[in-house]
From TrEMBL:
Originating species: Aminomonas paucivorans DSM 12260
Name of the molecule in the record: Uncharacterized protein family UPF0324
Record field: transmembrane: 30-50, 71-91, 97-116, 150-171, 216-239, 251-272, 278-298, 310-331
Main location: membrane
GO CC annotations, alphabetized: plasma membrane
The family this protein is said to belong to: Belongs to the UPF0324 family.
InterPro entries listed in its UniProt record: UPF0324_pro, UPF0324_YeiH-like
A family per Pfam: Cons_hypoth698
Subcellular location field: Cell membrane
Keyword Manganese: no
Membrane association type: Multi-pass membrane protein
Keyword annotations of the record: Cell membrane, Membrane, Transmembrane, Transmembrane helix
């Protein structure tokens, strides 16, 4: 454990700093999450001063990138209860399912047409369809794409998620005028929560209309996050075996099951609210440190080598979320009220 301390301390300090910045009103209003800030800060140091310390810090950075990520995902489950799912109802759950499934399918088709490797395609598709950077990091456990592919996928989430948080509020009055959603902001919140990439971006796009829209959007977004539980085993079946593996294997990461267990515990009310708040804080810090560790391990040359294809793929998926997600939301309003 002693050999991990320098790298773990570096990732923790970066993550803590990003978490603090992410909670400043000015920064939060722009939709920059602590995860985004952590990876940007990590990449800045990772491409400047960190390489000379990499031999000493490497074990701790890898520990943060893997172990802290897993526990961060588990603790993320305390943000949701089954009562929240009931509040959204079938309309929200079905809309989320359609958005996630169709976006992943489109990613597979477009990525193949662009000649992209399947692992990068799935990481970009997962980040766009589920919950941004955290989903990319969680999916890497199954996809085994390596830090270079992960940072490319996360970069696309940052670009198009940021674009979404500015564009979506501009669409709100048009949606009311065309009858796509009601003026109370709940229908708009469903649209935002089911189609925008990151949780912080969902909050920012929702708050631009009102607190009710933001609150509803976050619940819908959390249901999208829950789709990680069935999604990761499916990804393990889609991917070809890694070199040395014999045949396909179904991978069910323990931390995804832990996430589901956390949702269940929170739903039952067995964990005091004060403890829940502490667990959520710990989870946020774990995820921020993991993202900072990823940034430290990443090199800008990896993004350059990937070229513009991942950006094109993410752009197509963004347009699909904007338009196709809007169609799913409108259809849900017509058929399910």
């Amino acid at each position: 454990m002693g050999g991990r301390i320098p790298g773990l301390a570096a990732a923790a300090c970066l993550g803590l700093g990003a978490w603090g910045l992410g909670h400043l009103d000015g920064v939060r209003g722009w939709g920059f999450s602590s995860l985004t800030l952590a990876i940007l800060g990590g990449m800045l140091l990772g491409n400047t001063v960190y390489p000379r310390w990499e031999d000493r810090c490497g074990p701790g950075v890898q520990f943060a990138q893997k172990t802290l990520l897993r526990w961060g995902v588990v603790l993320f489950g305390f943000r949701l209860t089954l009562g929240d799912v009931a509040t959204v109802g079938w309309r929200g759950a079905v809309t989320d399912l359609l958005v996630v499934a169709s976006t992943l399918l489109l990613a597979r088709v477009v990525g193949s047409a662009l000649g992209m490797d399947r692992r990068t395609t799935l990481l970009v598709g997962t980040g766009s369809s589920v919950c941004g950077a955290a989903a990319v990091m969680a999916a890497e456990e199954v996809v085994q794409g390596g830090p270079d592919r992960v940072v490319v996928a996360v970069s696309t989430v940052v670009v198009f998620g940021t674009l979404a948080l500015f564009l979506y509020p501009l669409l709100y009055p048009w949606g009311v005028a065309w009858g796509l959603w009601e003026s109370d902001g709940l229908g708009y919140g469903l649209y935002v929560g089911s189609t925008v990439h990151e949780v912080a971006q969902v909050v920012a796009a929702g708050r631009a209309v009102g607190p009710e829209a933001a609150g509803f959007a976050v619940i819908v977004k959390m249901i999208r996050v829950m789709f990680l539980v069935p999604l990761l085993p499916v990804l393990s079946l889609i991917l070809p075996p890694l070199e040395g593996e014999k045949g396909k294997r179904v991978v069910v990461p323990w931390f995804v099951l832990g996430f589901a267990a956390a949702v269940g515990l929170h739903s039952l009310g067995w964990v005091p609210e004060g403890v829940v708040r502490g667990l959520l804080l710990a989870g946020d810090l774990f995820l921020a440190a993991a993202m900072a560790a990823l940034g430290l391990s990443s090199r800008v040359t990896a993004v350059r080598r990937a070229g513009c294809k991942p950006l094109i793929l993410a752009g197509v998926l963004f347009l699909w979320l904007l338009v196709g997600g809007g169609v799913f939301n409108w259809t849900g309003k017509v058929w399910m009220g």
